[in-house]
Amino acid sequence: MTTQTDSKAKPSRLMAIWRAASIPLAAVILALLVGAVILLISGANPIAAYSALAKGAFGSTAAFGRTLEKATPLILGGLAVAFAFKGGLFNIGGQGQLLFGAIVAAGVGFGIDGLPFIIHMPLALLMGSLAGALYGAIPGALKTYTGAREVITTIMLNFIAINFTDWLADGPWKDEGIVARTPAIAEAAAIPTWGNIPAGFFLAILAAVATWYLLYRTTTGYEIRTVGLNSNAAKYAGIKVSYTVILTMAISGFLAGMGGAIETLGVVGRYQPGFNAGLGFDGITIALLARTNPLGVVPAALLVGAMQAGSSQMQFDAHVPFQIIDVIQALILFFVSADMIVRWIVRVQPEEGEQVTLSTSWG
Amino acid sequence: MTTAAMAKAKSRGDYVRIVGLIFGGIVLLGIIYGYITNPVTTTAVLASTLRQSTPLVLGALCGLIGERSGIINIGIEGQMLMAAFIAFLANVYTGNLFVAVLAGLATGAVLGGFLAFMSVTLKMDQIIGGTVINILALGLTSFFYQTGLTTQGKLQAIALGPLAEIPLIGPVFFDNPPITYATLILVMVVHYVLFYTRWGLRTRAVGEHPSAADTVGINVYKMRYINVIIGGSIAGLAGAYLTLEAVGSFERAMTNGRGFVALAVMIFGKYTPFGAWGAALLFGFAVALQTQLQFSGRLEIPHQFIGMLPYVLTIVVLAGFVGRTRVPAAVGKPYEKE
Amino acid sequence: MRYTKIWLVAVIFVMALSLAACGGAAPTQAPAEKEAAAEEAAAEESAAEQASADEAAEEEAPAEEPAAAAEGDCSSEEVFCVGLVTDVGEIDDKSFNQSAWEGVQIAGEAGAQVDYIETGDAKDYAANIDLFAQNGYDVIVTVGFALGEATATAASNYPDIDFIGVDQFQAEPVDNLAGLIFPEDKAGFMAGALAAQLTQSGTIAAVLGTDLVPPVVAFKEGYEAGARHINPDINLISTFHPGGLDVAFTDPEWGASTAKQAIDQGADVIFGAGGKTGNGALIEVAGHEGLFCIGVDTDQWETVPEAHPCLVSSAMKLITPGVAGLIEMSQAGQFPSGNFVGDVGLAPFHDFESQISDEIKASLEEINTGLLDGSIETGYNPG
What we know:
The complex is a heterotrimer of chains A (363), B (338) and C (383). Chain A is mainly α. Chain A is 73% helix and 1% strand. In chain A, strands 1-2 form a two-stranded antiparallel ribbon. Chain B has 14 helices and two strands, in the order αααααβαβαααααααα. Chain B is globular. The chains are: A mainly alpha (363), B mainly alpha (338), C alpha/beta (383). Chains in contact: A-B, A-C, B-C.
């Protein structure tokens, strides 16, 4: 077979990149193809729709900036979920942790006056992230001490977080006027945007690298992954499982909270109910798209962020409702995961240990 | 499990039972007291409790049938939403509510089949499979839904003759629309089938020890497929409940997280139909109660705190009294025939 | 072979789309790609896209987009363009987005080129407004108080464009920005007065969206004040949706269930004020004989036909004529800045016309006059 000799002749690193990238690439193409059929059924022109989508996501520096802006909370939300999965936990509560991060960052942002940027912004960011960590630690502690599954408690805590933050924004922290929202944050607390490029995006990248480092290059990370694979084995290996579970949830919450804090400090400029809707849930999709790989979260978030950023242009140019991007997202996730189908087309053999099972976090 | 651990588990079981009895007693006394002092309101709250719990019980039944056979289904939300949409369309275009309910059931079953295909045949991770269904259903229904579609009507309550005349119990249980009745019956049927029939035994065997089941000649794949499809059709019934019985119309994203609450209810109920029913009633009661507290207007608490009630109550009861739930052993693992 | 297969799929995909999109008009560019290398395929793909997109634009004439057929250049003097940006929610929400869009469409019938963008994420408000502004639109309508900040910013960035902010109170007037606001409390007051005169049981209810949205609070306060104006001892039961802003208006099941809970304790007139959540309540009431329901925002007789059996009236904000009027003023070069107060009132009784006694009609008339001349106050005082 020519292909056999072909692949041997190529440098192996190129081959590895091809292996890693081919499945997602093919999955995206397949998803767009099926999406195009749906668009055709609905009477829209898929090519016009997709080119408008691309224009809205990458057509100008402003568009590209918006893609990065959209990708930022998705990266952090995705990291939060992926990190918990590595520790054998299913954190559906990213939304709640993100809301707490967003509102506490706003509180620090508008509540303190006169600090220099170098202190105020990092302080607001840190406090927001810590609020997320604290809120994430609750289901961890509940699981450890009472056995209550985090799957339930995080769902419930999401609802509680919405009510609590709504109350804060419409009550004690309410801005003057009739609109329910907090006052605008101080200028010194704002995360800058360089030209069209939001600085928050680089913070998210930093977080992704740090998460990867923590998981794969530190003892704590090793312990978290061991607990994630098999908590009984971890116990016999002398790892404090209870402590690790709480720590995992706290770090996961920290990441989600940071996502919320960056939204407040870098994009919205205050906390306003409804402005962070759905971000935490998107994180689940991103983590699954990235197969829970912290570095894979970045391209996954960029892809989804680009679609979100381009959806308005798609409406404007092609008159296609923005909900089609949800359909395409689901299809991408399907084809990325249903690699049997994709492998038949691309003919890449799975590597050892490439298979991801998240279902260990169920139970 | 060591003997000490077993003893501990047993005493914990006793503890849970006692606390449960006390809790149930308090609830019963509370209901009686409420009925004596204010019969109208008490009846209204309990009737509302039953309504609020209906989609949750159905969703939980869908989930637990799947998990008992070894398949995690977190796509309940999507199955409900899509079925709600198709049932609504069927009602609009045929004007026949019975056909519409069947359309809802069929839609749920098809999505159940899709989940089974992903997790059994493609051996995809089951959490991903469910998530795919959730996003897909949200996207497709929102994309294709057009307003201006009007239905002829919705399923109305049928009073069961003299039974409906019984004070308190009558209006709460025996004066309901068809899907609510069907839900009550389904809870009992699923319980019976799961624990007292060969089919149920096989289902549980497949969920606990698929390889052992395989050796005695049970077709693991077939069992899982059929169970997940049946579960899907029950989630479809929940969707039909939303559009055909509760509301009479469709709106985008109208499930609003009920599929996820159903998931919580299923775990809360320890993967048993009656447990799920109890958990759903507790949740539904908390929702009805928070509405009633707002109605009374006497509480000087911001309504957001009253709105937290169902969720806080769930966490408290779960953490305080229910604790750890045992998951069917083979859940989440694709079965590889040897 | 392994390499070519994926690109083969891509190429077939592009071909299929070109064929489908252009009805066989432009399949000529595609076949040449078959042997092409990867990069070339990609380049060709975008070329094909461009070509077919252009052709499609000429042919495109979807039924619901009358304006798209006559695609003109909005930056030119002759073409008058009006764009609308919705609040989070859809253009066909049977509520304020839809009413505002109908107002824009009136301008469309008069020859203006009109278009809308549905906002999916609250953080896109500014970007969506920019899309219209940068394409040379002359008037931009933004719907909902939540767009207030983004609209004000855009108004100062684009001084040549007139902005209409529906439900947006302007604390500091900007020349090219008119806030179209409504005294919802007065509409609610009328609805409450009607409800209090219709009730037999002495209990009336309100099923509401969320108090995070000021107009909802105004409707509620007005409703309760109006009911008490007729009967100070009336039993009022009202409730807000217990969820956040993102679900409070899209939960018809909760609305229906809550309405039923109110009916079960004797409420016989129910005011549904909360988008689709409220619509759920209206449809529930319609299933019970002899009860009344009152809609909100628009004449819901038109938007929620399922509620006909109970829908006696609606507490209306006349958004459609308000928006249309402001657009007309902008076109005539007489755009008002600051706040522009639109009309409110009760919708016609439709099929209930004969059931409403002359006594009630007279009383409502009297209250309406009182509200207008200020002799009756609703007692609602925001912020």
